[in-house]
Specification:
TIM Barrel, 8 helices, three-stranded antiparallel beta sheet, eight-stranded mixed beta sheet, 15 strands, alpha/beta, about 300 residues
Length: about 300
C-alpha cells in the first residue's frame, strides 16, 4: 500500500489518486513508465538546502495525486485523471538525467509515493549512473512505501501545508486527518538514513496559524533535532484559490521567529527572493556562510569541511 488513504476498491474501480485501480483483484499502477513532465532544476527549487547545494536535478512526475489541494500550482498534472505522458523506461529516465548534466533525479510536481514502484526502479537505475534521488512528498505515506523508499532514496522534503492545522487540511486539501504525515516522518527517522527537510506552505487567512506553526516547530525539534531544516514558503494564488492574496512577508517572518524560538537552528523563508532569511547563517557565530538570491548561490563561505 503506497498511500495513507487506504482506498477500498472493488473490481474495476480506481482510487482517489486516479492512477491505481483494481484489475481483476490485483492493484495496478496505470502510470508506470508514463512521464508527464521532465525539467532540469536547481536543487534549491525543491526546496532542498542542506543536501548537495548548488547541484542540478532532473525533475519528473506522472499524472495524479492523493491530495486535492485547492491552490495546487501543478493542478494540470496532479489533478488530471486521464493517464498521459511520454513512455520512458527507468533506464531512459536515468540516461536523460545524465544527458542533461543532472546530478540527481527529483520525483516531484505530484505526490511521488503514489507511483513508488516506478520511482524505485528509476532510482535504482539512477544510482547505477552515480546519481542521487530526492522525493518532494506530502508525507501521506505508509510503512510499506517508506520501506521501499529506503531501497533508493537519498533525500526527502516533507511538504506541510498550513502547518497541518486539521480544519485547513480537511477543507483545502481534502485530507481527513494529518496524523499520517507525522507518522511517516517518524518511520523515515527510525527505519532509514534518508536526509529529511521540512517545508510548510503558509496560506494567508486560512492556513497561517502561529499556534500550529509552533506545534510543528516543536515536533521537528523534539523528533528530528535542532539542526533539521525547515522552510516557510510563501503562498501565491493559483487554481481554485485565485481570490486569496500572496502571503505577507511579515507573516512569514513571524513563523520564522517562532521556529527559531523553539530552538531550530536552520530556518528559511522560501519564495521571497532577496530576503536575508534565504541565506544560511552559521549556528555558532551567526555569520552568513551561504548567500542566496532565490534558487541561486551567490557566495560560499565554507571550507572543504563545511566550516566557516
Amino acid at each position: 500500500t503506497a498511500c495513507a488513504r487506504y482506498c477500498e476498491m472493488g473490481k474495476g474501480q480506481i482510487g482517489l489518486c486516479g492512477i491505481r485501480g483494481n484489475e481483476n483483484g490485483k492493484l495496478d499502477l496505470y502510470v508506470y513508465g508514463k512521464v508527464i513532465a521532465g525539467h532540469v532544476d536547481p536543487i534549491e527549487k525543491k526546496p532542498v538546502i542542506h543536501y548537495n547545494p548548488g547541484s542540478k536535478i532532473f525533475s519528473i512526475a506522472t499524472t495524479g495525486c492523493n491530495w486535492l489541494c485547492k491552490y495546487c500550482q501543478n493542478s494540470d498534472i496532479s489533478q488530471r485523471r486521464k493517464v498521459e505522458g511520454v513512455d520512458m523506461t527507468p533506464e531512459q529516465v536515468a540516461n536523460t538525467a545524465v544527458e542533461h548534466g543532472a546530478d540527481g533525479i527529483a520525483y516531484t510536481y505530484n505526490e511521488p509515493s503514489i507511483f513508488i514502484e516506478f520511482a524505485r526502479d528509476c532510482g535504482v537505475a539512477a544510482r547505477k549512473k552515480g546519481l542521487f534521488n530526492i522525493f518532494v512528498s506530502n508525507g501521506y505515506d505508509t510503512p510499506e512505501s517508506v520501506k521501499m523508499m529506503d531501497e533508493f532514496l537519498d533525500c526527502i522534503t516533507i511538504d506541510f501545508k498550513g502547518s497541518a492545522e486539521p480544519e485547513f487540511t480537511r477543507k483545502f486539501i481534502g485530507v481527513p486527518d494529518p496524523q499520517p504525515i507525522f507518522d511517516t516522518i517518524i518511520e523515515i527517522r527510525d527505519k532509514t538514513k534518508i536526509h529529511t527537510e521540512i517545508t510548510d506552505l503558509i496560506v494567508p487567512q486560512v492556513g497561517d496559524s502561529l499556534e500550529h506553526a509552533r506545534k510543528l516547530a516543536k515536533f521537528v525539534y523534539d523528533e528530528l533535532g535542532p539542526e533539521t531544516v525547515i522552510h516557510f514558503l510563501r503562498f501565491h494564488p493559483d487554481y481554485k484559490m485565485m481570490e486569496y492574496p500572496a502571503t505577507p512577508v511579515k507573516t512569514l517572518e513571524k513563523h520564522y521567529e517562532i521556529a527559531k524560538s523553539e530552538g531550530l537552528k536552520y530556518v528559511y523563508l522560501g519564495n521571497v527572493p532577496g530576503h536575508p532569511w534565504e541565506h544560511t547563517y552559521c549556528a555558532g557565530c551567526n555569520e552568513i556562510v551561504v548567500k542566496r538570491f532565490g534558487f541561486d548561490i551567490q557566495e560560499w563561505n565554507l571550507d572543504k569541511n563545511n566550516k566557516c
